[in-house]
Predict the 3D structure of the following.
Amino acid sequence: MQLTTRLPKRRASLRPARTSRPAAARAPADPEPPATRDARRGGGPQDQALYSCMCGYAFTAAVTTSVGCPHCGTEQAW
């Protein structure tokens, strides 16, 4: 289906002029950077990590340089 009626062109003078709001009416800028704000929303840093041992056991433990598997006792080096 094709339109046979053409729409009239708008004149620039018919559009209302844009007015900028005064600085006091604008929303204040967010004082925190996005990374800090997102970290607070996420509950802060995580102190636990998921480790998987060669024996097939997966466990969570505190983040350290070496952790022992609670199933077989093997050290898990990072």
Summary: The longest strand covers residues 48-52. The chain has a mean pLDDT of 77. Residues 57 and 71 are 7 Å apart (CA to CA).
